[in-house]
Amino acid sequence: MKARTVGIRILNSLIPVLLAFVVGGVVIASIGENPVETYWILISKSLLTPKGFLTTLHYAAPLILTGLAIAVNFKAGIYNMGVEGSVLLGGFFAGIAGAYLPATLDPTMLKLLCLLVGIVCGMLYVVVPALLKAYFHVDEMVVTLMLNYALAKVLEFLSTGVFRDQGAGYVCTPTISDGAMFQRISSAKLTPFFFISLAAFVVMFFVMNHSKLGFEITAMGKNVEFADAMGMRVRRKIIVLMLISGALAGLAGAGYMLSDQYHYTLSFSGDPGLGWDGMLIALLGNHSPVGILIAAIFYAALKTGADNINLYSSVPKEIVTVIQGLIILFLAVKLLDERFGLRDRARKRISRRHSAAQTSAGVVSDNNAGEA
Amino acid sequence: MDLLASILYDTVYHAAPIILCVIGGVFAYQANVLNIALEGMMGIGAFASTLTVYFTNSLVLGLLAGVLAALIFGAIFSVMGVTLRGNVIIIGVALNLLVTAIAGFVMVRMNVANISLSSLNVSDLQIIIPGIDAIPILGPIVSGHPILTYVAFIGIWLMWVLSYRTKFGTYVRVVGENEDAAKSLGLKTNFYKIVAILIGALTCGLAGINLSTERLGLYTNGMTAGRGFVAIAAIYCGRGDPLKSSLYAILFGFARSLSINLAIYAGPASGLFDVIPYVVMVVVLLVVQVSKRRNVRTRGFANG
Fold it and tell me: GO: which molecular function terms (chain B) (predicted)?
């Protein structure tokens, strides 16, 4: 990859972020607060103090995993929105396992079992949409979105009924046993789960950049019909990739349960949810593992910073969610082409107009990713 | 008899907002633009209308604000997705996320957890047709609904006419089926795509108003509960035909109505009944897709 391409890619991720912060700043200013001050709180408390930075890393741990889970599918042109569902299902049953497995088990063993339960549940959740997509061409996006709602209802039912912690004043499942909890390493929130997440990152880095599967992901993303015609087993690859995504998301949910939440509540995954956060991270990181790692840490810093905004200023912390939404929105448009600069692109467009006017048949490039 | 009447009434009640989404959303589908922002357009319509009525006490202004907000979302979607050729799926997701963010931000500033219109008595908005409301079976279907519910059902026919009996509708489908050919005919393809998206935004705005202000006098975050995605599923199943797609929307309304009315008898398992409508939609999608692909005999993954 040429240095220029890399540079343009980085700019393509940076410009939307800056734009979103500018718009967010206008919003903050419009309610009579100082945007610079607010952003300073956001950044300084989450990145520039040791404790804040470790807390940021703690929040980054599940986000790295969901970011990878999204990237491994989106890059192949599979729009799997079920990552959020996998997180919930994995987290829920990891929590159940942590609470109901005998607490006398070896703590390491117990944690591993819980994580395993989470991974398996995350994979189970995507089996149906994967099979429907691979063998019947049912749109995976609609199916996973529908199933997300169905799943949320089922988990609500389970946590208000069978698995309800009767002692608690609100709807939640029993707290996991002490052995299943990841202990904090220092006074900050960081737990060993971060390193598990890093290990998964390393594995995915090699899978996506240095393996046959990684090459096939790129090929499918570029043109799935061509990949099929060249003899790739597209159906099987779809199922494999969605299962990988489910496993990563399940691990994220389980880890979040064991290192942060300790029991399942109805707002377990937060708003907008770890899976949706993962989508932003994958886009921001341009579907490349290293990009995702950086984006996850940046995003976790926003999360830590949002709590501090609430503490130290009168700006509602929802402003961070607004900024996140804007970042995704601006990321959708590639402002700079990877191969041509803006200038070349404009020149190309003008010449295209000319030729279109002459032949009355314009050159068109189909930009509808949806029907693929 | 009471049960049957309330099932029928609820079917119409729950189908209406989805029909509204569907009849506008079909145009974007026909123009080959995947608009998954229906959910967000509905949500922002709901929020803007409730907020406006909350401050002005005027239903007309609320209606205008809801439609306008949805149209603004439609305009953003059009500019970024069609003019600037961005990835429409990502734009859709972003708009859907922005609704809860914006509404959450405003509601925190207002110090409320949801916007409730205490001055509004929603039962006043229900139109009871004298004479018909007493007839069994027909009564609960036709009478006692708010005005936008009637608009939804009349809209099915209107949009069918717009789609199949006007030049505009034909051009939209031409643009969707073969953009190059449309361009070679001198059609401004982007124009038709944008108008298609804006029609969807307009009706989704109405759906949002129907859902929040008109029926409940209430806005809470997440109240759209995936109805926009259900509408997309219905559009897929009906392949962009306003009439057929609306039938699938009614099917969903029926499933939801059944799940609500039967849940009363289900005891502790009633919570699970909420799952039915979503699962029904997935199954319908599968059945439609399988029957569509049965006729395709060509080899390869991408056909069909």
Answer: transmembrane transporter activity
**Comparing C-alpha atoms, which of B97, B72, B201, B106 is closest to residue A327?**
B97
Q: pLDDT of B73-109, one tens digit each?
A: 999 999 988 888 888 888 998 898 899 889 988 998 8
Tell me which chain B residue has its CA closest to the CA of residue A314. B109
Residue A207's pLDDT is what?
93
Which residues in chain A are closer than 8 Å to B229, comparing Cβ atoms?
142, 145-146
Identify which of A149, A334, A368 has the shortest CB distance to residue B226: A149
ipTM of the complex: 0.84
Instruction: Find the closest chain B residue to A363 by CA distance.
Output: B180
Structural domain tally of chain B? 1
The residue segments making up the domain with residue B40 are 2-117+148-293
Q: What are the respective helix, strand and coil percentages of chain A, to the nearest 5?
A: 75, 0, 25
Separation CA A114–CA A258 (nearest Å): 8
Residue B174 lies in a domain: yes
pTM score: 0.84
In chain B, whose CA is at the least distance from the CA of A360?
B184
Burial of A323 (0-12, 13-18, 19+ CB in 10 A): buried
A:21-40 residues touching chain B, CB 8 A cutoff: 27, 31
Give CA–CA dist B1/B55, Å, rounded: 42
Q: Does residue B89 fall inside a structural domain?
A: yes
The reply to whether B92 falls in a domain is yes
Residue A123 structure tokens: 């994979």
- Phi, psi (degrees; rounded to nearest 5) at A309: -60, -40
Q: How far apart are CA A244 and CA A65, in angstroms?
A: 11
CB contact under 8 A, A369 and B88: yes
What span, in angstroms and rounded, lies between the C-alpha atoms of B14 and B12? 6
Helix (H) or strand (E) holding A67: helix A50-74
Q: Identify the residue whose tokens are 């199922």.
A: A239
Q: Do A322 and B98 touch (CB under 8 A)?
A: yes
Asked whether residue B215 is domain-assigned, the answer is yes
Query: Which residues in chain B have Cβ-Cβ distances shorter than 8 Å to A360?
Result: 184, 186
Provide the shortest C-alpha distance from residue B4 to chain A (in Å).
25
Q: What stretches in chain B show pLDDT beneath 50?
A: 303-304
Between chain A and chain B, the number of residue pairs with CB atoms below 8 A apart is 165
Helix H or strand E segment including B126: strand B126-127
Q: Which of residues 248-277 of A touch B (CB under 8 A)?
A: 271-272, 276
Contacts A234 to B, Cβ<8 Å: 301
Rounded to an integer, what distance in angstroms lies between the CA atom of residue B64 and that of residue B2? 37
Return the closest-CA partner of residue B71 out of B194, B252, B192.
B194
What's the pLDDT at A141?
A: 85
The distance from CA B249 to its chain's CA centroid, rounded to whole angstroms, is: 9
- The answer to whether the CB atoms of A157 and B272 lie below 8 A apart is yes
Here the contacts of B288-291 (C-beta below 8 Å, separation 24 or greater) are: B288/B236, B288/B237, B289/A136, B289/A137, B289/A138, B290/A136
CB contact under 8 A, B275 and A160: no
